[in-house]
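$ ./design --mode recover --in tokens.txt
reading tokens...
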């Protein structure tokens, strides 16, 4: 199952270590954005838990 990094839109796999990001770097960028702007994760993203 393919998905896209919610930060940079790069194609990723749901099994990926950093899902829903492509990398550790993107996960941190997104965290900082969230802290700054109260960024709300899209409901379109399907989390397993
Ligand atoms: Zn990314």
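writing sequence...
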């Amino acid at each position: 199952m393919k998905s896209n990094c919610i930060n940079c839109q790069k194609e990723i796999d749901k099994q990926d270590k950093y899902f829903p990001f492509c990398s550790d770097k993107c996960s941190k960028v997104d965290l900082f954005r969230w802290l700054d702007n109260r960024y709300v994760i899209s409901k379109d993203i399907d989390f397993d838990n």
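exit 0
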